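Question (not urgent): is this output format expected?
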Amino acid sequence: MMTKTRWIFLFATFVISCGSLIMLIVATTTTQWVNGRAVSTSGGGSTTTASLDAHYGLFGGSQDLHILNVISHYDLTMTCSFGDNICGLSCQRTPEARLDEITKILNGVTPSECPISSARSNNGGLLVDTRQQDVPSNEQFINAGLWLSSVVFLCITIFFALLCTVQSLTNILSNPIWSIFSVYGLYIWNGLAIAFAILTLILWGSLFATSIQYNIAVRHTLTVNSILKSEGLASLGFSYWILFGPILLHSINIGLLLWRKWLIEREPPPVAINVNRNDFTILLY
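Got this back:
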């Protein structure tokens, strides 16, 4: 039984919260947080025509390596060494091999070749410049602390969006006793969903500005002596920008709740009927 005054506003917040939840799930599960490209550089009297296109999300992605007429496809997985505070996109297939690859790259050791998911020729190897180069610094990798914080804050955003969805429906169908679970609690949960979504945007945006835009942190741009460079060739993908959707939707929810409150306050108070209990004429009715 619908017991709430102006329940249609609560139903609207329920539908909008569902939309926000869908957007957040899409952002979490898709692999378009970063779109990057790397191109070959020349040196040592030799030039290799090569390029790389990669895209990835919070947990993984894929890349296509182009060498002359060779196109090799690799699956990528976000791999972190929290002791070194670094993360990178590994193309290995097992957790142990991925961590070993990231560690070797950090130490300037050439890692094992990646298994190719698919290729249009039988040669997916990348020629390298034989000149000695510096060992990659931590700044060239993805900062593990910022990556983990982005994931945690996004998960918290999803939690509050889910809470908004459930609590909106609950307040349509019943009258919770505790005020934190009533309509007033919806102000809090919507506000927190907005706050943590903004924090996620800020953290990943900072990560992109400080490291990813200079190196997309895939094996072929991190490896010592690699001829592929990605500086200035990366951009934020739709999986990142879609987070503005939940911020807007939860802001609309708060606006609807305030509008509902304003309409209720404008309604005239119910007319009180005073009954004289000493008037025995009411017994006739």
